[in-house]
Amino acid sequence: MRTLRWTFAVYLAAVLVVTCWPSPESTAAPGWALAVVDAFRAVGLPMTVAFLEAASNVVMFLPFGVLGLLLLTGPDARGDLAADPARGLWRRAGLVVLAGFALSLAIELTQLLIPGRYSTVQDVVLNTTGAALGAAAAAGLLALRRARPAPSTP
């Protein structure tokens, strides 16, 4: 559990660096984004910088959903998980999504004060979607794992 907490802390620090670091005031797409778009186009897959940016916002918050739910349902989790495991699991997934929304909103509000950063409602929606997809995937896997019968010992 300690490793999971540290992983989540490092992940959050990385998200804050990526989203809150001042950037030069420019509307041009970064070189790495253009290189990725060109690579996709080179193999025949249509790609735009706008789609890449949107997908990046979703992907950036997938780990939030997975790690957040794993932390909430760790070995020391009690309460509604004991009474109704399935309902408790999805309730905790909902809390993780709500926390992802709150973090994204806080980031976007902070970006209003940072030179070169642009705050959008779209980013909040896409980040929250990423947290929801991550939490749903983790909840689904945890539910499958719990539903599987324990191995019998001879």
TrEMBL record:
Query: Could you confirm whether the keyword Membrane appears in this record?
Result: yes
Record key words, sorted: Membrane, Transmembrane, Transmembrane helix
Give the source's domain of life in one word.
Bacteria
The VanZ-like domain, residue ranges: 8-138
Q: Where is the signal peptide?
A: none
A Pfam cross-reference name: VanZ
User: Where would you find the membrane-spanning parts of this chain?
Assistant: 51-72, 93-114, 126-144
Entry protein name:
VanZ like family protein
Q: Which organism is it from?
A: Oerskovia enterophila
